């Protein structure tokens, strides 16, 4: 069943992610949609639909109306509301300069607005809250985890444990000499 992006409703039972949490674990409204949920009337590139979904999500996370986002981007209330609506309905594509301004106003990385899946967007948003040292470690760690399913599985098991058991697990890992 196809639907238009203006029908997105976080309270709806549709299969999109409405449980986004920020790096601070605060629940945030989400309108992430899966690629399979995108209408066949999408423009030539699915990137327009993904961008529209991320824009709606980010705008709602910040509590902005289309009017207020357009105004904060310097387009004025009326013109801005129309422009944001056109982005969200995939009528108009956004330029790089406007994308940069929009990302700044929404306090998200521009890459978040261009993510082609809800999970990728969640990861980008989480990474945007890391400091430089953490980013350096994560940039080295992610390829290792992708290349080592067993290590990734052990880390997932650790994440699923109660927090009170994390210290014991870290001691076990250190004692095992895991590479």
Q: Overview of this structure, please?
A:
- The chain has nine helices and no strands.
- It is mainly alpha-helical.
- The longest helix is centred in the last third of the chain and has 16 residues.
Low-confidence blocks of residues: 1-43
Radius of gyration: 19 Å
Number of helices: 9
Mean pLDDT: 78
The CA-CA distance between the termini, in Å, is: 47 Å
Cα shape: elongated
How would a crystallographer describe the biggest sheet?
Answer: none
Secondary-structure content class: mainly alpha
Give helix and strand order, one letter per element, not per position: HHHHHHHHH
Strand proportion: under 5%
The total count of strands amounts to 0
Helix content: 55-70%
Task: Sum up the structure in keywords.
single chain, 179 residues, mainly alpha, 9 helices, 55% helix, disordered N terminus
Task: Compile the SSE list and pairings.
Elements (H helix, E strand, L loop, with lengths): L46 H15 L4 H7 L4 H12 L7 H11 L3 H5 L3 H10 L4 H16 L1 H12 L5 H11 L3
Question: What's the gist of this structure?
Answer:
The protein is mainly α.
């Amino acid at each position: 069943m196809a639907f238009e992006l203006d029908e997105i409703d976080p309270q709806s039972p549709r299969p999109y992610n409405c449980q986004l949490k920020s790096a601070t674990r605060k629940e945030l409204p989400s309108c992430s949609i899966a690629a399979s949920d995108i209408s066949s009337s999408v423009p030539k590139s699915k990137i327009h639909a993904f961008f529209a979904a991320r824009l709606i999500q980010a705008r709602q996370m910040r509590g902005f109306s289309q009017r207020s986002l357009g105004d904060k981007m310097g387009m004025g209330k009326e013109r801005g509301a129309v422009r944001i609506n056109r982005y969200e309905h995939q009528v108009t594509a956004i330029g790089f300069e406007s994308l940069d301004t929009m990302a700044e106003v929404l306090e998200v990385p521009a890459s978040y607005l261009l993510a082609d899946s809800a999970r990728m967007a969640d990861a980008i948003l989480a990474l945007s809250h890391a400091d430089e040292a953490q980013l350096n470690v994560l940039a080295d760690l992610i390829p290792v985890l992708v290349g080592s399913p067993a290590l990734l599985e052990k880390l997932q098991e650790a994440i699923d444990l109660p927090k009170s058991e994390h210290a014991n697990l870290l001691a076990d890992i250190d004692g095992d000499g895991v590479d």
